[in-house]
TrEMBL record, chain A:
Protein name (record): Sugar ABC transporter substrate-binding protein
Residues covered by region (Disordered): 26-45
Pfam families with a match to the protein in the record: SBP_bac_1 (PF01547)
SUPFAM superfamilies, sorted: Periplasmic binding protein-like II
Bias-annotated ranges (Basic and acidic residues): 33-45
Organism: Paenibacillus azoreducens
Entry-linked Gene3D superfamilies: Periplasmic binding protein-like II (3.40.190.10)
Top-rank lineage group of the source organism: Bacteria
InterPro entries: Bact_solute-bd_prot1, SBP
TrEMBL record, chain B:
CDD domains (alphabetical): TM_PBP2 (cd06261)
Protein name in the entry: Spermidine/putrescine ABC transporter permease
Pfam families the UniProt entry points to: BPD_transp_1
A GO cellular component entry from the record: plasma membrane
Compartment annotation: Cell membrane
Taxonomic source organism: Paenibacillus azoreducens
Positions of transmembrane segments: 21-47, 88-109, 121-141, 174-193, 222-242, 282-304
Family indicated by similarity: Belongs to the binding-protein-dependent transport system permease family.
Its membrane topology: Multi-pass membrane protein
Length: 436, 316
């Protein structure tokens, strides 16, 4: 019997060890709390917020500067920043019940996450504190909103424009950038050079570039909210795909793959646009900053995205994407989290941050701010960001899946694995059942 | 002897003695870390994924029962078929090739030449390198413009494909990478080769058997249990292939979707990851996982069943 008793004792100790191992995480903090309330004079203990953001390197440092500014001014709410570019980890933390107090994300994830309950709706706070949502660029704000709820505040926005190499255009006898899609097509033909038995040496514009941007050039739309229909087969979307396909087929997959394989890294002096492998490219507002850094001697121009020849009212089209801040579901101090979120998206902080990292601000009131005076290319981009023809991909619960599937099928169409109609039908067949 | 046997049987009739119970509990306690781990980390997830596969579950909201809807949707999903065909290609083409090359390397490393230990180390080295690092290394090796592989091919006057960019060559690229790492399998074959009694070969040589006869009639049968083991492990590995595709064909270059050019590297596990963690369809992904489980189990059973015909265990 003694032996049996010692055996149960062993089991007991083992269980105890397991249990204490599980709860070990909470013990020190609760001990600290009780200790401080006993001894301290201040009744209110400073709240510590964890803030996960996706920026790294110099961009992360710019954000840390803001965090320091906040901490100096607010001793009662201490914010601790953590650079965490893998947004998948936020999901794990939220579902695990231990989320960061404030976090950054891409605009395209806001509604899928928000509608599923991973993000806290901010409307009550916005109302209480009279945050003027009217100051935000509509296309940027709309990606954070769904069914009357706002799940995140966009801090920065991105829009693409047409970059062109002035020397190469001049050499080809072209005067100024193309304005319409028809002209763009001619430009690409003239600016693409084959040498040595048909080997592509230089390309006017990479044909697989951006079906979303060009869809808006043709007035395309991806979702009919009234009919609850996904519309990858919308005439405008189809026209954009056919445009890309037309250029792709001029050269063929084999030649393009060969050409692409010799191209250098995007974030380096070997970027194909910097080295003259591409005469034109569609890229975002950060590119001029890169050019200044990697290819200071490049003579380039920034022009509006070309539009459908038959629809002059579609002038200055574009695809807007955003970076946002949000409060995850289940945070312990929502009021304090909001205070910080509200502060960091105020005009002053937004200007400081976006100017430092070369991103566009989402507030219209900032578009004339002098802080952007020295950011290369921002004269053109700030002006462009108020164009009424900017669109963003429709914010729905299934939007990230929709974009993935669309890109996949676009790729298959370009490579001739499926016809245009069949590829778009596949997108529709896969996504339409997700509409609720 | 007789006494102890009859004593045991009578004991069994009476049930366990206190001593036996004691050892039983003691054994359980020593095994308990594994038992608890197995229950929590294997049995529980196993059955909960079966449950989730019959629901619509996005991590945040409670799972909603949908019955067989996920499985029905999978049957209509072209990504599913694409991923199956890509994966089967790797299983049925890459695995035999890698197996054969491992065996070949093992036989070469079995020769008694000077410095053989260095050769063995060199061939085993790639297996030590983490798969992410080797995948990154191979993106350089296979770069169509300045990669070593194409420099050599051009020098030899052979066609130089665009390896990782051309949908027709992406999977062969992976096979090439796999061959580079076949030293790990070769090591196991080598150990087995050294267990084959030399007397067999000597006897065969006396009987006038040539190299091929000795290989085919002695080496292969003697190694057959190891071949079976490597084949099954290789097949299971092929069905779970993920890292190489994720690194080589990841994200940005393809407009955010995984799977590489023309989805030629969309393997089963990659598709599953995409559905679960990018599209937040945990129920759908669980159903995919169960289909994978059934496929792998069936193929393994099939291999085991046919193996009776070609695997020889010593002493039989």
């Amino acid at each position: 019997m003694m032996r049996k008793g010692s055996l149960w004792g062993l089991i007991f100790i083992l269980l105890l060890a397991i249990l204490s191992g599980c709860s070990g995480k909470d013990t020190p903090s609760s001990g600290k709390e009780s200790g401080e309330t006993k001894g301290g004079d201040s009744p209110k203990e400073p709240v510590e917020l964890s803030f996960w953001y996706g920026w790294t390197g110099p961009e992360g440092e710019a954000l840390e500067k803001l965090i320091k500014k906040w901490n100096d001014a607010n001793p009662d709410i201490k914010v601790k920043g953590l650079s965490q570019s893998d947004y998948q980890k936020q999901l794990t933390a939220i579902t695990g019940g231990n989320p960061p107090d404030v976090a950054s994300n891409f605009g395209k994830d806001v509604v899928p996450w928000g509608e599923r309950g991973a993000m806290m709706p901010l409307d009550d706070y916005i109302k209480k504190d009279n945050v003027d949502l009217g100051d935000f660029v509509p296309a940027a704000l709309s990606s954070s909103q769904s069914q009357g709820k706002t799940y995140a505040i966009p801090i920065a926005m991105h829009v693409s424009m047409l970059f062109y190499n002035k020397d190469m255009l001049e050499k080809a006898g072209l005067n100024g950038p193309p304005e319409t899609m028809g002209q763009l097509k001619e430009y690409i033909a003239k600016l693409s050079v084959k040498e040595n038995g048909g080997k592509l040496q230089q390309l006017g514009l990479w044909p697989g570039v951006d079906a979303f941007t060009f869809s808006y050039s043709y007035g395309g739309s991806f979702y009919d909210a009234d009919k609850k229909q996904v519309t990858p087969d919308h005439a405008g979307v189809k026209a954009a795909i056919e445009f890309g396909k037309g250029i792709w087929d001029q050269f063929g997959s084999k030649e393009l793959d060969r050409f692409a394989s010799g191209l250098g890294q995007y974030m380096s002096p070997q970027n194909p646009f910097f080295t003259g492998k591409y005469a034109m490219t569609i890229d975002g507002e950060w590119l001029p900053t890169f050019i200044k850094q990697f290819a200071p001697n490049l003579k380039y121009g920034i022009a509006p995205i070309p539009y459908d020849d038959n629809n002059p009212n579609l002038k200055n089209p574009g695809n807007v994407t955003t970076s946002v801040f949000y409060i995850p579901k289940g945070v312990k101090h929502p009021d304090e989290s909001w205070k910080f979120l509200k502060w960091i998206t105020e005009p002053e902080q937004m200007a400081e941050f976006t100017a430092a990292i070369g991103n566009l601000p989402t507030r219209t009131s900032l578009q004339t701010h002098e802080i952007y005076k020295d950011v290369p290319g921002f004269k053109e981009f700030l002006q462009y960001s108020s164009s009424p023809n900017l669109r963003s991909f429709p914010a729905t619960t299934f939007s990230s899946e929709y974009m993935t599937e669309f890109s996949t099928q676009y790729n298959a169409i370009l490579r001739g694995e499926v016809s245009v109609d069949e590829g778009l039908k596949r997108v529709k067949d896969k996504i339409q059942p997700l509409v609720k | 002897m007789k006494d102890s046997i009859s004593g045991q049987t009578s004991l069994r009739r009476r049930g366990w003695t206190r001593r036996e119970w004691h050892y039983f509990w003691l054994g359980l306690i020593f095994a308990s870390p594994w038992i608890i781990g197995f229950l929590i980390f294997t049995v529980y997830p196993f059955f909960s994924s079966l449950y989730f596969s019959l629901t619509e579950y996005d991590l945040f909201n409670a799972p909603r029962w949908v019955g067989m809807d996920n499985y029905k949707a999978i049957m209509k999903d072209h990504n599913f078929y694409k991923s199956i065909s890509n994966t089967l290609f790797m299983a049925f083409i890459s695995v035999p090739i890698t197996l054969f090359s491992s065996l070949l390397i093992a036989m070469l490393l079995n020769f008694k030449v000077k410095g053989i230990n260095y050769y063995r180390t060199i061939f085993y080295l790639p297996a030590v390198i983490p798969s992410v690092a080797s995948a990154l290394l191979w993106t350089w090796m296979l770069n169509p413009d300045f990669g070593l592989v194409n420099i050599f091919l051009r020098w030899a006057g052979l066609p130089d494909p665009a390896w990782l960019l051309d949908p027709q060559f992406t999977k062969p690229s992976l096979i090439l990478m796999g061959l580079w790492g076949s030293g790990a399998g070769a090591l196991i074959f080598l150990a087995a080769l050294q267990g084959v009694p030399q007397t067999y070969y000597e006897a065969a040589q006396v009987d006038g058997a040539n190299w091929w006869h000795r290989f085919w009639k002695i080496t292969v049968p003697a190694l057959s249990p190891i071949i079976l083991f490597q084949l099954i492990m290789g097949l299971i590995g092929a069905f779970q292939i993920f890292t190489e595709s994720y690194i080589l064909a990841g994200g940005k270059s393809n407009g955010g979707s995984l799977g590489g050019p023309g989805q030629s590297l969309l393997f089963y596990a990659v598709n599953l990851y995409q559905e679960a963690f990018m599209n937040l369809k945990m129920g759908y992904a669980s159903a995919l996982a169960w289909i994978l489980f059934i496929i792998v189990m069936l193929i393994t059973l099939l291999v085991l069943k046919t193996s009776k015909r070609w695997v020889y265990y010593g002493g039989e």
